[in-house]
Design goal:
It is a single chain. Helix 3 (about 55-75) packs across helix 5, helix 9 packs antiparallel against helix 10 and helix 15 (about 310-315) packs across helix 17. About 70% of the residues lie in helices and about 0% in strands. The chain is mainly α and about 425 residues long. It has 20 helices and no strands.
Length: about 425
Amino acid sequence: MMAYIVHISIITATLWWFGKGLQGKDRMMYFAGAFMKITGGLFFGWLYIQYLKGGDTLGYFHASFHWYDLFRENTAAYWENLLYNSEGISSRYTGEPRAVFMVKIVSLISLAVGTRYWLISMYFSLAAFAAAWYFFLQLKRYQPLYTNGFWLVLFAFPGLLFWGGGVLKETVAIISLFVMAGLFIRAQNRERIRIGEILVVIFVLYLILQLKYYVLAVFLPSMALASYFIVVDHLSFFRVKWTKYTLLPILIALAVVFVINLSPNFQPDYFLYRVVADHDRLLKLTDTEFSISYEHYEPTVYSFLVNAPKAIFSGLFRPMIMEGSGYQLLSGVQNLFLLLAVIWGIYVKFRYQVKVSVTVWCCLLYCVVMATFLAYATPNFGTLERYKSMFQPFLLLALVPVFYPSKTRIPSTTRAK
């Protein structure tokens, strides 16, 4: 009990220290956001322990016991294995280096809190809140009109609260994405980047590379594409519209080279086979009623193109309400809201001739590519819903402005006058 009192006091004091200078609405948003994140992480753990009786979150926690015991018995061996052993020190997760890396992260936190799942979960949630708050501050600073919408997406959207604050690889990936996105916004607006921010970005880049390298394979090229158009817009040589695209083939070629060299799984002659193999493996473990089915699904470009519409729609909006039961019914409600939001966004875009920034277009590109290939490789709706948490917040953030009346949203008939 004393350990809980001590660490909850540390978390509370940390939140108070960094939030003590805030006033009024900002202060309320800060503490409400922290409460929502930590509560979401605890609810996630409670649901898995009480009802689902397992899952990766408890797997990582239980596997960390071996590392904790090793530290107590032989500290030098613990640090040596932590740095150089990618196979783990127990039979669990053998041959799964990404899972082993996650167990190492959990074990590091357990050195401070012991083998106490709830405290480990709270520290994960605290880190998730810190990254989301950093990202929120950058969004709020440069788009203050949409502050409430940004807060709702980052601190109240059910999918992100549930999957983005517990002891999961997705939580670490979301933390990394938010930190990188926040720094990108600062760089885009020509802010001075502090050395501490650079070091943190390098650290989270390493984390996401170890845990979710395929997310990095989509996110970094998307940011690079946005950066390219932002830069050329400020160069006099590219003032003629068509000249902006002259260097684009080089950028695309560099992105392809980057992705191919990021992991052996991205080799051109192997990538499609790996995606189909992952799909088939998960499909064998999934009730066909709660999965995506494709016609003539094969590791060929033709098969992927034919099934692309279903993959895109499934990755973005499924399971629908009629496809789920239990907690998946809640996912269906969330996906219905997302579908209606996208339809409304398309309507607003063309009805009011709203200009969409290149950053938002690249953000949408990231979401569509992620949704497509996650749906190709992950037919299980439950697993897919978890993975979607790594792009859904960006899709919702891109849609936030369409829910705000603004003087810039003038009907095209009025503009013509």
